[in-house]
Amino acid sequence: MKKHLLATTFLLLPAMAAAQTTLRYADYSANRGIRAEGVMAFLAEVEKRSEGRIKIEQHWAQALLPAAEILDGVINGVASLGTVSAVYTPDDVFAYSVGDLPITNPHEVAGSMAMYELATTHPALVAEFDDLGVVFLMNYSVGPIQMVCKGDAPATIEGFKGKKIRATSNYGRIYGTFGAVNVPLALPEAYSGLDTGLIDCSQAYGYVVESYKLQEVADSFVVIDGATIQSNAMVISRREFDALTPADQKMLVDLGKEYTRKGAEAMRARNLSVIEQLAGGGLNGHKLQVVRFTDDDRAKLEAAGKPFIDDYIAQGAKRGIDAAKLVEDYKALLAKHMAEVKG
Questions:
Q1: pTM of the entire structure?
Q2: Which of 105, 120, 195, 301 is deepest in the core (most CB within 10 A)?
Q3: CA angle, 159 as apex, 154 and 161 as ends, to 5°?
Q4: Do residues 200 and 165 lie in contact, with contact meaning Cβ atoms separated by under 8 Å?
Q5: What value, to the nearest 5°, has the Cα angle with vertex 262 and ends 259 and 267?
Q6: Are 106 and 163 in contact (CB under 8 A)?
Q7: b or e along 40-50 (b: 16 or more beta carbons within 10 Å of the residue's beta carbon)?
Q8: Do 82 and 26 meet the contact criterion of CB atoms below 8 Å apart?
């Protein structure tokens, strides 16, 4: 009898092993900070709700793939799923990169949920992800782009005239129309740049000031609440997604939407908390002068960004995409979700 039970056990083990799927996750950031915390919570929840059917190997800080190669890596099977930012692969996810355009987007939750809805329902984005062979799972929000500065804060957009700034994407050129001087500098170098006077201001988000300790080398913070870098996604290989059971596929999709919102809510709370501390008792003992742009300043910034939106629309036409309608659809979803959020 014992021999029979032992044989049965050995026969079951291969079947049990085959039922477990191991997915490799690739990320270009380190596994710390508010966004990483949300991603790790999501991945842990996937393993929990799959009841052992799915295990996830986590590869952070470009350990598996550099930022610009994560999308190709997911497509080609080097990774199963990963974080993809349109700024690194703008040609591949052209339609999705609409979220990076200089369009006023002041609320992390509204912006992130608008992008989630756009990515999962808009024909242009759905077709784009399908053609790439990936499934969109979630969107990340970083919040509206602000500025942290050495010296007095520019109280208006015109106050950036002559300021040496660190800015990414098209935003350096946009501020350049108001007389700012864009200095090419990576975010990790912002601390030394502000400290040495190489730059006067650095593009930042509230949580970035805290993470990189920029309050130690700055004197002021400008709350702009304008546009943002919004086209950041987690995608999974279509091939590996299709190999999962329908129940696990639904679980992944449902969790992606759930953690899109949770991540955005956590990001907003952290950003607001940092700004409140900077203006109040100080962030880790460092209090900064905090000024806020007016609606008029934001309107001027958005007007200065219009040529970049026009260029996006022109590029869309060359690709057979009605990018003008895509931009308007994105704005409509932003308005819809702005009306729904509180705080």
A1: 0.90
A2: 105
A3: 130
A4: yes
A5: 120
A6: no
A7: bebbeebeeeb
A8: yes
Strand order of the sheet with strand 201-204? 181-182, 164-166, 201-204, 146-149, 220-223, 289-292
Q: Using one digit for the tens of pLDDT, what is the confidence trace for 193-240?
A: 999 999 999 999 999 999 899 999 999 999 999 999 999 999 999 999
User: In the structure encoding, which two tokens stand for residue 137, read together?
Assistant: 């799972």
Select from 87, 67, 55 the least CA-distant residue to 27. 67
User: Domain spans of the chain?
Assistant: 2-140+229-269
- Per the DSSP assignment, residues forming a β-bridge with 23 are 56
Residue with tokens 């702009």: 224
Q: Please, what's the largest Cα pairwise distance for the chain?
A: 87
Classify domain 2-140+229-269 at the CATH class level. alpha beta
- What's the CA gap between 307 and 313, in Å, rounded? 10
Percent of the chain with pLDDT over 90: 89
Torsion over CA: 33, 38, 44, 47 (sign): negative
**Contact yes or no for 68/78 (Cβ under 8 A):** no
Nearest to 111 by CA among 313, 103, 28, 89: 103
Residue 188 pLDDT grade (very low, low, confident, very high; cuts 50, 70, 90): confident
- 3-state secondary structure string across the chain: CHHHHHHHHHHHHHHHHHCCEEEEEECCCCCCCHHHHHHHHHHHHHHHHCCCCEEEEEECCCCCCCHHHHHHHHHHCCCCEEEEECCCCCCCCCCHHHHHCCCCCCCHHHHHHHHHHHHHHCHHHHHHHHHHCEEEEEECCCCCCEEEECCCCCCCHHHHCCCEEECCCCHHHHHHCCCCEECCCCHHHHHHHHHHCCCCEEEECHHHHHHCCHHHHCCEEEECCCCCCCCEEEEEEHHHHHCCCHHHHHHHHHHHHHHHHHHHHHHHHHHHHHHHHHHCCCECCECCEEEECCHHHHHHHHHHHHHHHHHHHHHHHHCCCCHHHHHHHHHHHHHHHHHHCCC
Percent of the chain with pLDDT over 70: 94
Q: What is the mean pLDDT of residues 240-267?
A: 97
